[in-house]
């Protein structure tokens, strides 16, 4: 029986994914000096070229890949290389293997990667242009972000042949959920499912912001270590952040095998400088995706990200307009009658709608008035006492009240989220909005397939158990408050203070 690898899941965010010291073996890697002498070679170079790694080191490039091949790519390698892999040509080594050569300069050396391909010529891009053109045409017709995302999934499937392609979107806390998918009918669906932030640790997200695409061609691979292990220029392990062959974290490889995925590729979706999500591709068996196809996918991802950005901007604007409309109608209601508190009570329904809350409360002159689903009056009083003791500025908002105010652990059902603000400069007058726990509202599209982890494998590493972990993490959390809601609440407060001031002046005039 295969030995069960011991994986420490508590240190995932410490995995040195930029400096793994090895590569995936569907090609080989050489680090080269400016004169193209070999400084380091991946341990598998002998499998591909017949020249063992220890013999390659110190030799000119031609001694490893053959004079003709070296001559072919030498001018490309001598050119000013950037920090991103650049296609330097397709070569055939002296022993007859074909490779696409990618080169970039990083950490003081030239990193040259030789990806095995089954053709002697450069890739043919002709069939890829219509695919991208088609996507661009359809983008205009797709209205919502989800329609666009699902279109992108279909196109990436056509380019690559992956069995399942999905769009994975992050929320503000880094948890993710699947919002679009295209798949072969033999693959089960992940649509709508949620995963905790820890499934893609922080350092991986950082890297994916910089390096926009990655391929794991075969999750059962044996890594090929670099020889010698240290970069001779820096004296440290090589930084392979941008290397296409970079060996990936063993924890993640186990995760993939547990989800019956032997090949995966993911494309970063950057929106407004942030990692918005990933396009994630799965295949049951190993699958080679050559450079030109990866480039097409990267571009589809960029187009999708741009579209998302503009759609989100439009949606944001629309959202703010609607909130403002509600506010204006509320303010109109507030200036009607003579009793300020009574007026506020009259606009309670609008108050809820305004903040997409399920409960609201007003505390004025020691009175507590509630509407909708709120905690008990005593709990609200205690909460307001706590709020007054801790100066939170003009507005306090949280989507996990119990994390800051432990008594709220009893109140998560209707008060996981709180938006609260003082509405008087002098008195203890407060306006509070409550949101319920979010997890109740999310459906787990349970799927029996995800349970089928490889026997003997650490089963805690799979999307299925991830869902439970996610559930655990978001316990006591509400839907987040939209920035527009917070800003508008502040405006509302200013208006309320204005109304109160005007009223006080009127009273003073009457008294004169
Ligand atoms: C990387 N984790 C990743 C990646 C994805 C996921 C997409 C990027 C690499 C790739 O393209 O395959 C997660 N993949 C998912 C999720 C789905 C999916 C959620 O298909 C859902 C459908 N991962 C864990 C745990 C740890 C972990 C518990 O689940 C650590 C404790 C680590 N994941 C981990 C690491 C990487 C990773 C270290 C970086 C891999 C690398 O780039 O070297």
Explain this structure to me?
With 512 residues, the chain is of the alpha+beta class. The chain has helices spanning 45-49, 53-56, 61-65, 67-78, 128-139, 145-160, 202-210, 250-258, 291-334, 340-346, 348-354, 377-389, 401-404, 412-415, 463-473, 483-511, and strands at residues 22-23, 27-32, 38-42, 86-92, 98-106, 109-117, 164-170, 176-183, 194-195, 213-216, 224-227, 263-271, 274-283, 359-364, 367-372, 396-398, 417-422, 430-435. A 7-stranded antiparallel β-sheet has the order 1-11-3-2-6-5-4. The structure holds biliverdine IX alpha (BLA). Biliverdine IX alpha (BLA) is lined by residues 9, 12, 15, 17, 190, 195, 198-201, 204, 214, 216, 248-249, 251-252, 255, 264-266, 278, 280, 461, 463, 466. One of its GO terms (biological process) is regulation of DNA-templated transcription. It is a multi-pass membrane protein. It catalyses: ATP + protein L-histidine = ADP + protein N-phospho-L-histidine. In the N-terminal section; belongs to the phytochrome family.
**CATH class type of the largest domain:** Alpha Beta
Which class of secondary structure composition applies to the elements?
alpha+beta
The third-level CATH topology of the largest domain is: Beta-Lactamase
CATH architecture of the largest domain: 2-Layer Sandwich
Give the end-to-end Cα distance, rounded to a whole number of Å. Answer: 95 Å
Helicity range of the residues?
A: 25-40%
For the sheet with most strands, the description reads: 7 strands, antiparallel
Cα shape: elongated
For this structure, what is the CATH homologous superfamily of the largest domain? GAF domain
Beta-strand percent range: 15-25%
Based on CA atoms alone, the radius of gyration comes out at 29 Å
Could you say which small molecules are bound to this protein?
A: biliverdine IX alpha
User: What is the number of helices?
Assistant: 16
Strand order of the largest sheet: 1-11-3-2-6-5-4
